Amino acid sequence: MMQKKVCMVGVFGTGKTSLIQRFVHSRFSERYLSTVGVKIDRKDVDVDGAALTLILWDLAGRDGFEDITPSYLRGSHGILYVADGTRRETWEQLGELRALAREAAGDVPSVLAMNKGDLTDQWALPRSEEQKLAANWDVVRTSAKTGDGVEEAFLRLGRATIARREASR
Amino acid sequence: MSSEPWRAGAGYDPAAEELAELRELLLGADRRRIRELERRLDAAGVTGEELAELLPEAIALRARRDRQLARALAPTIEGAISESVRRNPREIATAIFPVLGPAIRKAIAEAFAGFAASINRAIEHSISPRGLAWRLESWRTGVPYPQIVLRHALIYRVEQVFLIHTETGLLLAQAAPADRPVTDADLVSGMLTAIRDFVGDAFGREQDAGGLRTFCVGELTVFVEQGPAAVLAAAVRGQAPEELHPRLQETLETIHLQFAGPLGEFHGDSEPFGPTVPLLEECLETRLATDRGERSRRRPAWIPWAVAAVLIAAVVGWRMYRSAREWNGALARLRAEPGIVVVDAERDWGQWRISGLRDPLAPEPAALLASVGVDTARVSGRWEPYLSGDPKFVNARSSPASARLSIERAIRRERVLFSVGSSGLDESAVIGHVSTEFRRLEALATAINGRAILTLVGRSDPTGSDAGNAALSRLRVEAARSALLERGVEASAIETRALGATSPLAAADPVERSTINRSVSFEVRVE
After folding, report:
1. Average model confidence (pLDDT) across chain B
2. Which of residues 299-338 of B touch A (CB under 8 A)?
3. Of chain B's two ends, which shows fewer C-beta atoms within 10 Å, N or C?
4. SS3 B93
5. How much is the mean pLDDT over chain A?
6. Is the CB of residue A78 less than 8 Å from the CB of residue A109?
């Protein structure tokens, strides 16, 4: 069985937990996020016919008081960054988060889920900035509410981890 | 003369080529050796290649000769190891990890052995009565005995074992009892790793110090053994002993040794770690207070056999005692009888053999044995005739006439009675006595060259027709005759008369008269 450790990283309130609640297999309660700072879930994806299990480390969101814990990122095969398309500060901190993650886990494949894509009237990410982000990130617009793009984000990340492994052989 | 086959301006010279070939054949090898010697002399030393060829053999040769080489190399090797540890301690730690644990364990094992043995003895002494009490409780409550034992005697049980990749926290393999499968083992594995990281971060874990080793969750204690590439976590229910740590550590070391390659190349594929499952399953042990050492475990196997043997011995002993008592009683009865002398008696697998002397006037030994309850079918007797000095027999022989009269009176007094309308004989004692007395009479008659005759007289009560009564009395006579024949009375010595109701015996009371006439009576004479 092929498994990959994937960390979900983002600023507090970007909807990481909502993505997990609806689309992945959970066993542990949300309170682990506020106590241990991480919760482990599982997402099974089919990458070009091959079964792949993503062990998702849902890291507590970064806020003004607490930063993400670097040791949780260690050994990650991929990182799913989550930002909120209605809140500028959530994508403005992506650079810092990526630097932190690279320091702990190295340069591993990543995907950026620009979440809350269903809130079109509150969408705050201008087209120009979106294009600028797309130049540096593999961006997928997602909605935890409608499910749009969620499977795609996980699938892309899974495929990227497999491709990275193949390339390193 | 030139040896070159091609000469400037002269073209190809075949003779020169042949000369060069001849020279090579004759001197080529010597010339090459000379050139090699010249090269060595010019170099004035040993080349790296030559040293590489000679060094292993030279080291082995010198090491066999004395310890000079070891003494010379020791400072260098010590220095190299010190430098390596100083620069990268993790590398050395990883390299010696698989052998470090066994070495330490071996050193402390003997110290613990005595302590463990005393604890085992203490446990063993408190088992049997409790075991019986638990069986009684199981029988009383209907709860299976194993559950009762677990409820009372569980010391600890390793319920789940996880092999986890250290860096990623991904599950490599896991083991659990078939009746208690672990769901979401991969998530448990990840969460376990996260908690270890959390504790390490929160309490300032030293790098590679091992981190979280034990934590308790209700009745469960989780033992965590840390290795360079993998972590072994075991969930234990009950009072987990500290000695479990080294056992788990040993398993982890074995896995590191046997799966060093897959562990080093792990990128998420857990399939290569399938063969570790049997090693993990060996850790799934249950220890009860009723568990003992190997010697003690065998005890329950032979105790039932011992109990069975004691029971069999008791039954056999009882049967032997009863047989001996019967045997002694029978011999005492024979020995007490005047005119019978027991010379030899033995028993063999239920068969009795008795031999001796018997006065012809003495009763039949078989009849005597039957009178004390012996089954005469398993008795074989051999009796030689002799003349007893007992006054009874002396008198009988000295006064045959009086003896004869005595016997005849005894026979005539006997009477076999029958039920109304029946010819069924159920008074065997009367027949036995008559046959015995008649044999004595025969002996007396023989002594005077005479012949004893026994006459059976059958009767019926007056009820019914004369013909019917005659027939019934005939049947009664025949029944008595058959019984006497069975007891050895000669057929030629027996006569019969069936009188029906024609010649009744007298009695004042009508009922008694009817009773005594439903009979066979006996008459004797000597001819």
Report:
1. 81
2. none
3. N
4. helix
5. 88
6. yes
Which residues in chain A have Cβ-Cβ distances shorter than 8 Å to B188? 27
Give me the sign of the Cα torsion angle B477, B480, B482, B485.
negative
A123-155 burial string, b = 16+ CB within 10 Å, else e? eebeeeeeeebeeebbbbbbbbeeeebbeebbb
- The ipTM (two decimal places) reads 0.89
pTM of the model: 0.49
Name the residue with tokens 């070495």: B103
Compute the distance between CA of residue A2 and CA of residue A9 in angstroms, rounded to an integer.
22
* B361, B337 contact by CB (below 8 A): no
Asked whether the CA dihedral B79, B83, B89, B93 is positive or negative, the reply is: negative
Q: Do B167 and A75 touch (CB under 8 A)?
A: yes
pLDDT bracket for residue B226 (50, 70, 90) = confident
Rounded Cα distance between B156 and A140, Å, is 51
User: Which B residues, 268 through 287, put their C-beta within 8 Å of a C-beta on chain A?
Assistant: 268-271
Cα separation, B386 vs B338, in Å, equals: 12
Q: Which residues are paired to B463 by β-bridges?
A: none
Q: Looking at the predicted structure, is the pLDDT value of residue B121 above 60? A: no
| % of chain B beyond a pLDDT of 90 | 18
A79 by DSSP, 3-state: which?
Answer: strand
On the 0-12 / 13-18 / 19+ scale of CB atoms within 10 A, B320 is exposed
- Residue B195 vs residue B70, higher pLDDT: B195
Q: Does B150 touch chain A (CB under 8 A)?
A: no
B9-65: pLDDT as tens digits: 456 677 888 888 888 888 888 888 888 888 777 765 666 777 787 888 888 888 777
Lowest mean pLDDT among B234-243, B321-330, B464-473: B234-243
Whether B270 contacts B162, CB under 8 Å: no
Structure tokens that stand for B272 in this block: 């290569």
Residues of B in contact with A77 (CB under 8 A): 168, 267-268
Amino acid, res. B327 = W
Task: Measure the CA angle with vertex B131, ends B129 and B132; round to 5°.
Answer: 65
Closest CA to B169 of B270, B18, B49, B258: B270
